[in-house]
Specification:
5-stranded mixed sheet, 413 residues, 35% helix, alpha+beta
């Protein structure tokens, strides 16, 4: 199988593509967020440029790997924190003996195997699960209404409800599903394939479940199952971003793809919510705003800010998160216009633009004739975990200051 290695936001050297390979890549441009341009010349070479999507996609005879600029461990940490995992859960694939530079997919298999071995070392987690069925003996409680409705007075079987102490519970189902999902991808490392087989064999009595990517259930942790937190966190991440047979028309592909724009936005939202100790309703995602926001009086131009702090139906802070590098002197006008639209529609004195990379510190743009303060800052994702936590604390302080300014203006009005 042929592999094309790319790096996010970087143009490739001219790559020869057959007519079939070109057709497949064109059919998956949306999933890969890939730009394809002819390189010139008669030999069918093309320049490929990915944007914010990283990961790997297997098209059968062709594999496309898009490497992130950030270390793999940091990418997975950001994604897991964005899904709600505590920032104390960290992944460090550099501790594994990889050959060369692994793709995200190749790194995930040994990480899942390592986390599973640690979790299973204390024995498989068991828990109570409520069962309802018809039995020839009485167990638990008789479901009288169901017995009458289904059995019409026949005494056996008896419709009962009981609690079964079993290993077939959600945490084990998530881990098994993640191992199965990874095993369906084309892994180069033979040891990884063996490790995934070992996980599925250990969980042989656990029911196989296909979890939808956008509705992977959460697990509540306590003293009894805390040792499963790492492997469940990684399993949920795998299930969230792994796709089987995606694509359009005749082009079908399997892969693990992450849009870093979405990951960064969700990470900043979740990290600020946790740092400020707010509820999801007070600091929601852009998909769960308490009310619709429109720029115009006719309610035709709808706005969905990434970051917002609400007091009931009143917005007290607004901001946007951008996964790109920026210099304070060259902030894209479109980003500033977008933030200005948010502050205007929500009648706020200012707002915040958060970039993933750039010059340290903050800069402020005072909008002429509008009285709006547009603040621009960056979050350095490349430092240590402690450094990143410090960046979030500083960012939370900026958010509080902007919210305080909005409150002062409302009091003065």
């Amino acid at each position: 199988m042929r592999t094309i290695d790319l790096t996010e936001w970087e143009s490739s050297d001219p790559i020869p593509l057959s007519a079939g390979e070109l057709t497949e890549l064109v059919g998956l441009r949306d999933e890969l967020k890939l730009t394809i341009e002819p390189a010139g010349g008669p030999d069918g070479r093309y320049i490929l440029r990915p944007s914010s999507t990283v990961g790997a996609l297997d098209l059968g005879g062709l594999s496309v790997a898009i490497h992130p600029k950030l270390p793999i461990g940091r990418v997975l940490n950001l994604a897991s924190w964005a899904m709600g995992s505590p920032r104390t859960v960290t992944f460090r694939p550099e501790s594994f003996d990889f050959t060369g530079e692994p793709t995200l997919v190749e790194a995930l298999a040994p990480m899942l195997a390592h986390a599973a071995r640690r979790a299973f070392a204390r024995g498989l987690l068991h828990g109570y699960r409520t069962e309802e069925e018809g039995l020839t003996t009485i167990r638990g409680r008789i479901r009288v209404d169901d017995q009458i409705r289904r059995r019409f007075g026949v005494p056996i079987p008896v419709e009962v409800r009981y609690d079964d102490f079993t290993e077939d519970i959600l945490p084990n189902r998530l881990v098994k599903a993640a191992a199965h999902r990874l095993s369906r991808l084309r892994l180069q490392a033979r040891q990884s394939r063996r490790d995934l087989g070992a996980i599925r064999a250990t969980l042989d009595k656990v029911s196989p479940v296909e979890f939808p990517r956008n509705a992977v259930p959460e697990v509540r942790f306590n003293g009894m199952n805390e040792h499963y937190r790492e492997v469940v966190t990684l399993a949920r991440l795998i299930l969230r971003y792994t796709s089987i047979e995606t694509g359009r028309g005749r082009v079908r592909a399997n892969g693990f793809l992450m849009d870093m724009n979405v990951v960064f936005q969700e990470f900043v939202t979740r990290a600020l919510r946790d740092e400020l100790r707010l509820t999801e309703s007070a600091f929601p995602s852009d998909r769960k705003l308490p009310r619709r926001i429109f720029l115009d009086q006719d309610s035709e131009v709808r706005l969905r800010p990434d970051l917002s702090w609400w007091n009931g139906s009143t917005c007290t802070f607004v901001g946007d998160a951008k996964y790109k590098r920026v210099e304070h002197k060259t902030v894209p006008n479109a980003d500033l216009y977008q933030l200005l639209a948010y502050t205007t529609a929500l009648d706020l004195p200012g707002g915040l633009l958060v970039y993933a990379e750039g010059e340290p510190g903050s800069t402020v743009h005072q909008v002429a004739h509008a009285g709006k303060r547009l603040e621009v800052t960056t979050v350095d994702l490349s430092g240590s975990i402690d450094d990143l936590h410090g960046e979030i604390r500083t960012l939370a302080g900026t958010v509080q200051a902007l919210r305080h300014q909005a409150a002062k203006r409302r009091q003065a009005a």
